[in-house]
Amino acid sequence: MTALAYLDGQWVNAASPHLGLSTQGLQYGTAVFEGIRAYRNLGHAQIRPFEARAHFERMHASCQALRIELRETVDELIAITEELITRNGHDDDCYIRPVACKTTFLPGTPFGVRLSGVDHSLMLTSVPMPSRLGQPTHLGIASTRRVPDTSMPSRAKISGAYVSSALAVDECAAQGYDDALLLTGEGRVAEASTSNIILRRGETVITPSLDQGILPGVTRALALDIARHKGYEVVERPVELAELFTTDELLLTGTGVEVSPVTSVEGREIRDGRPGDFTRHLCQRYEEKTRIEDTATPLKEARP
Ligand code: PMP
């Protein structure tokens, strides 16, 4: 079956080339994107995009940062996502990748690197992707630092910023780690390559605050909510690197990693190297929210 993609109002063959060689986003990284998982809901035998509204609201904000005027509303983007899942015949967990990319100069715009006066394209693709909920991560610390908010709006999910994530992952993977922790310019804890980091010490759940130049993760917000409901005190503040080595629990949250216990940092085990109570509770609640509860966007029946 040919995988389809949504491109500016059309359904096209995802494997065919569609963008020109002078695409601005390709040359300068001037594009924004999202990653959305869709889960097979056990009760309804449906494939439902998870937290699609929150992702597309963030995408609209990212577009604003790059002066991309999306023609599609959040509701329309959710509907396109649902149609994409159906058209591509997904009958199990999958991953949707929406991208809004700067393309070509509008008439009268002079040649050069710029945001204004440049057209854009919106595309959505999907691939099958099984859950990896609860899979432990051995984290390395990258020498590459998180791109600071003063250089690029870190609350926007901007393609060009991922060069530093890619450098960090390569560096840490070469040393045998699963993922990379990026520090802020000041050497504090920022986030992992594509996920946020959360600590638990006693009854307190701690995570770097948004002023640390991190992406406001959809899964991070969900995890903090679950923590509050469970009775933990939630504190968002700058986090020193040294705190990671004296914490009771450490974990990553993100659409890709879902909820992942960090069992070691730079080879040093966190506690006994096993997922703690909070992480296990989070995994259980995440599973319930994605598979059982009726909170996800409803979608047409999946094929049996
Ligand atoms: N930080 C970065 C740099 C990311 O790329 C991601 C993945 N989008 C996250 C955090 C986690 O965000 P979310 O939970 O919305 O997927």
Can you walk me through this structure?
The protein is of the alpha+beta class and 304 residues long. It has 2 domains: 4-128, D-amino Acid Aminotransferase, Chain A, domain 1, CATH 3.30.470; 137-290, D-amino Acid Aminotransferase, Chain A, domain 2 (Alpha-Beta Barrel). Helix content is 24%, strand content 29%. Strand 1 (4-7) and strand 2 (10-13) form a beta hairpin. Helix 2 (52-65) crosses helix 3 (74-87). It is globular. The chain starts with a strand and ends in a 13-residue tail after the last helix. Residues 296-304 have low confidence and may be disordered. It binds 4'-deoxy-4'-aminopyridoxal-5'-phosphate.
Could you spell the SSE succession in H and E letters? EEHEEEHHEEEHEEEEHEEEEH
**Structure class:** alpha+beta
Radius of gyration over all CA atoms, rounded: 20 Å
**Could you name the CATH homologous superfamily of the largest domain?**
D-amino Acid Aminotransferase, subunit A, domain 2
